[in-house]
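pasting input
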Amino acid sequence: MIKALHGLARAEQIAARRDEIVRDLKKETGRPVIGYLCCFAPPEIISAAGAIPYRITGRPGDTMAEADAYMEPYGCSYVRNILAQAVKGRLDFLDGLVISHSCDMIQRLYGIWTYYRPLPYSRLFNVPHQVSPWAQRFFKRELVFFQESLEQFTGATVTPEDLSRAVALSNRNRALIRELYRLRKENPPLIKGSEMLTLLLAGGVLPAEEFAKLLAETAAEVKNRTPAGPPAPRVLVWGSLLDDSTFYRLIEEAGGHVVADDTCIGFRVWEKDIPLRDDIYEGLKDHYFLNFQCPRTDRGPGVRRFDYILERAREYNADGVVGYIISFCDPHKFDYPDLRDFLRQSDLPVQLIDDNYSFTPAEAIKTRLQAFIELLK
Amino acid sequence: MSSEMSRARRHLETTRKMKDMLPRFFARMFERRFSNEPLAWCMVGVPPELLKAFDLLWEWPENFGTLCASRLVAPRFIEVAEGDGYSQELCSYVTNTMGYCKLFKESGEAPPESPLPGGMGNPAMLLGSGFVCEPRWKWFQSIATRFIDVPVYSSDPLAPPWDIDPHNPRIEAHYKELLRDDLHGQVAFLEKQTGKKLDPDLLREIIIRSHTALAYWRDTLALRKAVPSPMGSTDYFSAIIPQMYMVGEEEAVEFYREMYHEVKARVDNKIGITGEEKYRLIWFGLPPWFNLGIFNYLEDLGAVFALESTYNVGDWFEVDDLNDPLEVIVQRTWQRCVKMHDYGAETMPELCNPAVFGGFSGSRLLEEAVRDYSLDGAVMHLTRSCRAVSFGEVHTKNRLAEMGIPSLIFESDMADPRLWSDSQIKTRLHAFLETVDKSKKERR
Ligand code: SF4
Ligand code: SF4
């Protein structure tokens, strides 16, 4: 059925049935599925080692009580939600797991998950918080350790050529994604924020070549669109992880357009190409450690660390910024006051939405978003 | 609220004597502050020996948090921070500091009224550390961004996760290189900020005194295996202060030596801290600094804590080669990490020095503790605003249950007394002691 669909309709089906699709893929190819969380451990290495990378997502609003026997109630509800999925057996198609040490919560999830629900393969990808020369050297070594552990698991030998090939494939998708993002500069944008996120979520389960097809189809489809409706306020969404398009849809229903983002599954990893250098690991390090902006990494004091957000907001003509923060998300909660002041000084209004990874009560969230969007008009 | 909170009653002469010793120390420190000698704010994880070797003055905002908490003034600062946009979910030591800093800045750099006369001073630099938790990355970054614009160095220790073998030479080299380079980075920063060169001979001397003090501390903790328990948690939690402020000083060595001998004499003479010692417990997590009297409350019910999971500074390392004193610091950090690892630090894979904070989740360490300290139960403080230390308690509870040891997890906070609900907590503690009683009888 999915094959019969095209472009966005296909992306939506894929995003809604990610687990089923990866199960099929596993059966067809006989390759193991390696789930990953966060963006530091390159999925390109997973592919090059002959496994299927699968971006693990939670189920916002789903019960988390199953996590209580293993994890404290005070903790990022996204992390608790993922653990609950694992406990409920909903992720039992995974042959392996790689979690990068982004924040404390994710790192604790690794220990608890692998202790109580061990998988045939698991790896914590350790990431320093500084970007000092020695931290960069550590990151590069960690890339090699990660690759070796995968080779051991899959039995494959990964050559630099294999890696370059995987990187070239994902860079092609980066180019296609940038093209789609450019269509959001129109007013109104030719592709909605919720549609873009759906597409990226579908990409989290597809092999790179398949994803490229989907992106190309979608680009062709949306380029033919005639701009729908009158221009409306344009927002950039900043904050904790969003792996469900509900929040963007709430903004859209409130009368705004999501035209740019700075969250985990968004422009962050796709914005720039992975540099293809003689030393492929140097390129991966630059991309996944240096260039990739996440508040968990220490970029020193001062507000210059937010310049890229302002640049992005200007580039996409955003009228305001919506912050989305999941409860107990330390990295974002710490940055919020500094960022808020910085954006206000740059004449960009900010609205913060605190949530427990459930987008409820939806009406209350929508009312606050509506008031903000009114203000932007 | 305040009527429910009570200050700690200490059991040891030595810890009671801190009342005279510390003011003397602080008076000296303030004198130097007034003559504008450079002051660093620092975090646990920054080797104080290094600061001492640079003859710096230093202050611990974390400790300031505990002090504000114990005098019940933390909410005043925390509320200022909340008004600034800092969430109540964030570490209350941090929000306490943020509120303080905001008032400090708004008043033109006059210290706001606080339990520390003269306040935390005007720092010339901030020395952070990502050791233990994430908020530490953001904490000094935000202070320097919003309030006090001075240079920051954040050190970056990492440790291998629980399922990676630290005995593998490649892994050891991988991590040690990071620890070493980071420490050298810290030294380069200090040299630049102070305009002084590190004197390795001086650092070595300081380390020797520091380690001598820590060895007494470690041996004192081992004496707590004795029944009846010779000292209590109120002694324990106050006795960490000399090592924080007076590291490398003869007076600190003297303090820990005296403490050791006092506790030893109590063990030899079977002197306990409560009438009938009915239950021997272990404490997990940070204490509620605003209500340390809760420990005495439990002692009056016959329940003593023989061990605490946090602040075990100084345990578990044995560095003999003192030739290169910086290498000593690298070695001891690594040794603690390997030691904890060998105990199976499954839910605390990342803490570089799990010996300091909450590291008791290592299963084999739990077994040892239960056996050697004759434990009957565990009380775990789930601090809402410090997940770094309290995460792992559910797991630890599960592991203890397998050994037939009951645990109670109760929720509150280390510095924010607004999260303490006295009657509810006490009801639960009473019910828990009944459970301990039952399980103790069943185990007999
Ligand atoms: S939402 Fe925040 S706390 Fe949760 S995993 Fe992501 S960064 Fe960590
Ligand atoms: S370990 Fe806990 S109390 Fe200490 S700074 Fe981190 S969050 Fe705060």
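fyi Chain A touches chain B through 54 residues (CB under 8 Å).
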